[in-house]
Amino acid sequence: MARPDALSIVIPTWCAAAALADTLTALHPELTPADELVVADAASPDGTAAVAAGRGGRIVVTSRGRGVQLAAGAAAARSSWCLFLHADSRPAPGWRAAVAAFAATPAHRGRAAYFRLRFDDAAPTARRFERLVAWRSRRLGLPYGDQGLLIERAFYHAIGGFRALPLMEDVDLARRIGRRRLIALDAAIVTSAARYRRAGYFARGARNLCCLALYYLRVPPLLIAKLYE
């Protein structure tokens, strides 16, 4: 039987060896003996699985696709609570205490939580986008996957978990959780801004917004994924 304070950290990966190593380094100091690391890897050829195994991770080999990988990782999780993370998103120091405080509150068994987003970029534009993300998460109930998601495993399964979507799997699950049941943790997560720097913050943000609009217009996620790429 899972311990009530145990945490399964589930990370989907594809060719993410370097980013995953940094994330696991950030996580390691605050992990407890009861916690487990589940890495759902799509047979990455770059040694991602070896990086995870070297840090004590349990590898779940899946087909490629974030929704499929997250679902497979959750199915393999054994702890009472699951924390879903992207490979390039690193919880800041103090994250475990914030997670423990949330999980210790009985009312949160029917809720989920996410981190405050911080980009690894000192540019003022990054700060503006962080504020927009905070507004979107709070007012619309739409935290994205790079903000992490903490949820009790029983509640996760009760609402159907992650679906095998190629894109928008995080939005799909957030909508089923519902805005009033999504809580911001008193902790930050630092995520890579590399894609925003390459494309430009406004261009990348506009593309994400277009994808979200298409999702709400019921355009098939597979088609949205093709447009996104």
Q: Could you explain how this protein is built, in words?
A:
The chain is built from ten helices and eight strands. The protein has one domain (7-228): Spore Coat Polysaccharide Biosynthesis Protein SpsA, Chain A (Alpha-Beta Complex), CATH 3.90.550. The mean pLDDT is 94. β2, α2 (48-54) and β3 form a beta-alpha-beta unit. The chain has an eight-stranded mixed β-sheet with strand order 3-2-1-4-7-6-8-5, with helices on both faces. α1 packs parallel to α2 (48-54) and α9 (201-216) runs antiparallel to α10 (221-228). The protein has helices at 17-27, 48-54, 66-76, 95-103, 124-140, 153-158, 169-177, 194-199, 201-216, 221-228; strands at 7-13, 36-41, 58-61, 81-84, 89-91, 112-119, 149-152, 182-191. By secondary structure, the chain is α/β, with parallel strands linked by helices. It is 44% helix and 20% strand.
List the helices and strands and how they pair.
Elements: E1 7-13, H1 17-27, E2 36-41, H2 48-54, E3 58-61, H3 66-76, E4 81-84, E5 89-91, H4 95-103, E6 112-119, H5 124-140, E7 149-152, H6 153-158, H7 169-177, E8 182-191, H8 194-199, H9 201-216, H10 221-228
Parallel strand pairs: 1-2, 1-4, 2-3, 6-8
Antiparallel strand pairs: 4-7, 5-8, 6-7
Helix pairs in contact: 1-2, 9-10
